[in-house]
Amino acid sequence: MNSESGLDDARRDGRDEPSASDLVGAAIGGAARRAGIDPAEEATTGHVVWKAMGGVRGVLESVLPSLVFVVVYTFWPDPLVLSLGLSVGIAAVFTVIRLAQKSPPSAALGGLIAAAAAAALALFTGQGRDNFVLGLVTNAVYGTAFLISAVIGWSLIGLAAGYLMGEGTGWRQDRRKRRVFLWLALAWAALFYARLAVQLPLYLANETTLLGTLKLIMGLPLFAPLVAVTWLAVRALYPAARER
Predict the structure, then answer these.
(1) CA distance 63 to 107
(2) DSSP string for 200-239
(3) At 54, is the secondary structure helix, strand, or coil?
(4) Which of the 8 DSSP states describes residue 168?
(5) pLDDT tens for residues 49-82?
(6) Is the pTM of this model over 0.85?
(7) What is the CA radius of gyration of the chain?
(8) 3-state SS track over 130-147
(9) Quick check: 98 and 108 in contact, CB under 8 A?
(10) What is the residue extent of each domain of the chain?
(11) Dmax over Cα atoms in the chain, in whole Å?
């Protein structure tokens, strides 16, 4: 089944311009599809989760820079510059590989820019813990976005699913879908806020090694199960669409 874009939804509904919900749904749904999370496609849950994590390369990209930073920072004398340099260097290697494989430049450079910005902040302050500031901010922003979307009845999960399944915002007329999308948005908000609740006190206490370690533990190991739950829940809501 082919999903429609936000612009197509607007034209179908007789509107000249797509609404904000169309644009948000298209943006999030498009990102989900590029990550391999499209409930309209036939795939096993394990395959979807593995693809959402980026496969072997995605896991390495997510884990290695932080892991190297934590290990070097913990065990090397006067470690700040070396640990940050190695972390950014590893991110740069992965970026070169992505560009060589003709990945979209924005996707290839995103991780490197984030790693370089975090390292620059840590070097500027001279505090290793500041390498994790951008991650804390990201968790706060994402958690708040999911929470607000749930509270106002425009779940980000619902907007993405509606786009991917070609339903637009029609899910808001279905009580069951609204309820499921509400709880899914709250679950994602809880994930981001849980990371923040655990990691922010460690940041304030200047526990850099423990902060980096828990960042890794609360990364993919929590992300993967929630992707699986979201995938299964959305597919359960659209059995007829998958049979077309």
Answers:
(1) 17
(2) HHHHHTT-HHHHHHHHHHTSHHHHHHHHHHHHHHHHHH-H
(3) coil
(4) T
(5) 988 888 888 899 999 999 999 999 999 978 899 9
(6) yes
(7) 20
(8) HHHHHHHHHHHHHHHHHH
(9) yes
(10) 6-242
(11) 66
Structure tokens at 52: 């959402």
pLDDT tens digits, residue range 175-232? 999 999 999 999 999 999 999 999 999 999 999 999 999 999 999 999 999 999 999 9
Q: What is the mean pLDDT of the chain?
A: 87
pLDDT of residue 241: 56
pLDDT of residue 5: 44
Q: Of the candidates 129, 143, 111, which has an alpha carbon nearest to the alpha carbon of residue 213?
A: 129
Of 147, 152, 150, 161, nearest in space to 194 by CA: 147
| Alpha helices (runs of H) in the chain, residue ranges in sequence order | 6-12, 20-34, 45-52, 55-75, 80-100, 105-125, 133-151, 156-164, 175-204, 208-217, 220-237, 239-242
Return the half-sphere exposure (C-beta side, CA atoms, 13 A cut-off) of residue 99. 12
